[in-house]
């Protein structure tokens, strides 16, 4: 099973056994090590994990942004069943990226061109993908700024990114992303460096846009609370791999993988009083020389002899998977299926 929607038919996006490598001075970094996931129409998929786990690399691979010294070593990326890789796929990808699949990046200040006016930057998307004239694109850009909650949108079109606050710049990025009314929106840490109030406004905006436009959304975030509130499904990543998947409420109530449990324990809760947070001991593995067995074994409190062999992502419940030889859940949760040891 891959991370997919409950809808029937062909998923919008399928990523199959994707491997991405980066040639560095330290050696060949294995950024992604066989990632498989999919997303259906109208679904929100949350992708969580520590920094360096491969979340953003997965999004960049989908958007065709893996440049040298990086490369897609193997695997496939399909949009509506058609590959986006290879010579034929790359031509198809140029047509759909930005139009049918769009992305909101982490830092809007570095994503926006500082020497171009906001109206120009939104307008070029409309002119490139929809063939609008300059006047048509400007009118549509004004509508888009109004749609994402920016006041006086006509005047704002003639301003530069430095004249906007961080929250407003992120709204501009969202306006650019939805300009062509895409079917899939990838939001990579859309609330990074924003204060709590603005974060809530941006997330509320994304939820409203998904509802009104019928968007499918891939939400990449460190904030587990955001995932619990907005996402249908969740994929937990560690060391370039997906190590647990399932319905969001199921993963949060019955986390099976020790790493997922560690993430949840290290998250502050309003219903519990604690002197300090519980952290996950140790550090992620070096992806130049990743461990041969389970990538989490050096940090795992349940590690044993079986963990010397890499586990596969397998069913632990009818609608959940974990890559662990000894999946377990808290005592109050529904028992898991019996794991199969090597």
Low-confidence stretches: 1-8, 331-342
Task: Give me the Rg, rounded.
Answer: 21 Å
Mean of residue pLDDT values = 88
Choose one word for the global shape.
globular
Q: How many structural domains can be distinguished in the coordinates? A: 2
Measure the end-to-end span: 20 Å
Which sequence of SSEs, written as H and E, runs from N to C?
EEEHEEHEHHHHHEHEHEEHHEE
How would you name the CATH homologous superfamily of the largest domain?
P-loop containing nucleotide triphosphate hydrolases
CATH topology of the largest domain, anyone?
A: Rossmann fold
Query: What is the helical fraction, as a range of percent?
Result: 25-40%
Please work out how many helical segments DSSP would assign: 11
Strand content: 15-25%
CATH class of the largest domain: Alpha Beta
Helix/sheet category: alpha/beta
Largest sheet data: 8 strands, mixed
Protein name: Peptide/nickel transport system ATP-binding protein
GO cellular component, one term: plasma membrane
GO molecular function: ATP binding; ATP hydrolysis activity
Subcellular location: Cell inner membrane
């Amino acid at each position: 099973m891959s991370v997919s929607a409950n809808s029937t038919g062909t998923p919008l996006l399928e990523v199959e056994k994707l491997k991405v490598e980066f040639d560095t001075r330290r050696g060949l970094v294995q950024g992604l090590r066989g990632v498989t996931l999919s997303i259906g129409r109208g679904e929100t998929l949350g992708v969580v994990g520590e920094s360096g786990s491969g979340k953003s690399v997965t999004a960049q691979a989908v958007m065709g942004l893996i440049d040298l010294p990086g490369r897609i070593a193997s695997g496939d990326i399909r949009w509506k069943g058609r590959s986006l890789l290879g010579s034929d796929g790359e031509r198809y990808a140029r047509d759909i990226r930005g139009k049918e699949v769009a992305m909101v990046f982490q830092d809007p200040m570095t994503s926006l061109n500082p020497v171009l006016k906001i109206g120009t930057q939104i307008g070029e998307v409309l002119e490139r993908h929809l063939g609008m004239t300059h006047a048509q694109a400007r009118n549509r850009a004004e509508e888009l700024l109004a749609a994402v909650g920016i006041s006086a949108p006509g005047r704002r079109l003639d301003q530069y990114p430095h004249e906007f606050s961080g929250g407003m710049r992120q709204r501009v990025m969202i306006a650019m992303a939805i300009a062509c009314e895409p079917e899939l929106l990838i939001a990579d840490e859309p609330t990074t460096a924003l204060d709590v109030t603005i974060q809530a406004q941006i997330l509320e905006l994304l939820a409203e846009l998904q509802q009104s436009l019928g968007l499918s959304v891939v939400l990449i975030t460190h904030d587990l609370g955001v995932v619990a509130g907005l996402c249908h499904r969740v994929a937990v990543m560690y060391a370039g791999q997906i190590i647990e998947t399932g319905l969001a409420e199921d993963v949060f109530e019955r986390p099976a993988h020790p790493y997922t449990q560690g993430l949840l324990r290290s998250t502050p809760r309003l219903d519990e009083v604690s002197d300090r947070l519980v952290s996950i001991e140790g550090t992620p593995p070096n992806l130049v020389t990743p461990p041969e067995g389970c990538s989490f074994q050096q940090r795992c409190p349940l590690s044993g002899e079986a963990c010397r062999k890499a586990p596969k992502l397998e069913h632990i419940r009818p609608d959940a998977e974990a890559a662990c030889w000894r999946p377990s859940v808290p005592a109050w949760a529904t028992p898991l299926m019996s794991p199969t040891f090597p």
